[in-house]
Amino acid sequence: MKILANDGVSPEGIEKLEAAGFTVVTEKVEQDQLIDTINEENYVGLLVRSATTVRKDLIDACPNLKFIGRGGVGMDNIDVAYAREKGLTVENTPAASSQSVAELAMGSLFALARSTYDSYREMPNKGKEEFKTLKKKYSKGVELKGKTLLIVGFGRIGQSLASYALGAGMKVLGVTRTAREVEIPISIEGVGEVKSTIKTTADLNEALGKADFITMNVPATPDGKAIIGKAEFDKMKDGVRIVNVARGGVIDEDDLLDALKSGKVAAAALDVYVNEPSPRTDLLEDASIAPTPHIGAATSEAQARIGTELADKIIATLK
Question: Residue range 99-121: average pLDDT?
Fold first, then answer.
């Protein structure tokens, strides 16, 4: 049986699948050629990340396809319900990348607090001649310790991020669909595991005004509407800093730029964008934005876990 990993899969995943008797192909097929290739090569499984879409037309046109796997969390690039109605198995890997995405978010919090992301851009060109000017420019940093972090979406990634933030001395608020208590384990080398209980809230509007830093860790809304827009920005503290490692569109990009211009938002870190893979130039060039190219899960450890988890699910389904 043949599997097309159209957006790639880790060597660990390939090894496990091949050991189970599958043939794995990782050569990229362009979207407009995907249906013909799947049928001509008789692929029974299709693995994607965010670059390849799997819509109704492909599902209808590929009767031999039995398994669709998404390496990562969000499955908005797949018509999941329709595929399952047609009898296909659709799986993702929600746990495999949680730590990596949380670490990127935590790194972004440090970068925003000290404007290091902008310093890295400016120093190579201006550091020699304008050292004192740049030193003054970046002299208004803040510490994370003692600050309040609002985590919008308190699933696996949000909880993993909370453990890092608590370890750095931050106060953590979590927003969930229904208020609940969540126990956060914090592993300390040489000490063991300590635990902190976070009481989440379902009232985003009430929580926004308490936050010094905000991270978005939620899936895209079913209707595609932003969760954070002008009305929400108006409720925030002046000078708040925001990180989005979730999905493009959960923050309204026009309203974010306005909030940055007015000073309501001091800085933002974006790993995801509305129009991927062609994000807006004004976002990428804004000096108050730390942009990364959707790399939340792009660590060797996360990719290894994603590959083996998908392999396990394919074997369980098709063997």
Answer: 97
Residue 206 is a catalytic residue? no
Do 212 and 130 lie in one domain? The reply is yes
Q: Are residues 122 and 261 in the same domain?
A: yes
Per the CB < 8 A criterion, the answer to whether 105 and 162 are in contact is no
Of the residues 12, 122, 130, 276, only one is catalytic, namely 276
**pLDDT at residue 31 in the model:** 97
Strands 181-188 and 192-199: antiparallel
Query: What does pTM read for this prediction?
Result: 0.89
Mean pLDDT of 209-219: 96
H helix or E strand, kind and range, residue 188: strand 181-188
Task: Write the pLDDT tens digit of every residue in 32-80.
Answer: 999 999 999 999 999 999 889 999 999 999 999 999 999 988 888 999 9
Tell me, yes or no, if 247 is annotated catalytic. yes
| Choice among 247, 253, 305, 309 that is catalytic | 247
| Cα distances (angstroms) measured from residue 42 to each of 60, 80, 218, 244, 272 | 15, 21, 36, 39, 34
Domains contained in the chain, number? 2
Residue 294 is among the residues annotated as catalytic for this protein: yes
Catalytic residue among 49, 156, 241, 294: 294
